[in-house]
From TrEMBL:
Upper taxonomic lineage: unclassified sequences, metagenomes, organismal metagenomes
Pfam families: DNA_pol_B_exo2
Matches recorded under SUPFAM superfamilies: Ribonuclease H-like (SSF53098)
Signal peptide: none
All residue ranges annotated as the Predicted 3'-5' exonuclease PolB-like domain in the record: 82-202
Matches recorded under InterPro entries: 3'-5'_exonuclease_PolB-like, RNaseH-like_sf, RNaseH_sf
TM spans (from-to): none
Name recorded for this polypeptide: Putative DNA polymerase
GO terms assigned for molecular function: nucleic acid binding
Source organism (scientific name): viral metagenome
Amino acid sequence: MNIFLDIETIPFGDLVDPMTMTPPGNISKPETIAAWYKDKAIDIAAEKYRARALDSMQGNILCIGYAIGDEPSEIITTEYLDSERDALSVFRDVVNGIEPITFIGWNIVAFDIPFIWRKAIKYGLIGLRNAFNRDRYKGNHLDLMLAWGADWKDFRKLDDVAQFLGLPGKLGGLTGATIYDAYLEGRMDEITAYCKNDVETVRAIYRKIFE
């Protein structure tokens, strides 16, 4: 059974202290360094913090979007549960008992699957951990970004491929880079709609390629 998958993530933990940033090596005067900390360090620290969303060991899963076969897409979000662990437990209950299973997504080999797999190990969710066979050649996944690519460095964006194929593509003005801003502004409905749309786009691209 095919499970089309997409996750949205946000940074986690204490904010990065701007004073821990290292100024460029080409400035040495005390007054220049002081000015750099005043004018640049805050933005650099904020950017470094936001980058945690891309690291499974420093970020948190905000929502898990999935669709089983031809069924409607669904969203599990930590916003409406007590914790990330609870959301992953719900997803574990969704996938357990489905055999055989193929996880299908865009860049899931490098991002979505290891993010979920590592979190499953962290929280002791053995059933979810075991749902993934991460073998590069015989694993139970299909990464459409890799399937679409012409070679090992031909990585295209989901939205670009969707538009090329005449599909709707991304929803509204959100992107992966603006998810955290939307989260801080309390725009969870937009985020869940965005995640759900990505799942539907992945499924539509899969059908274009393989059906």
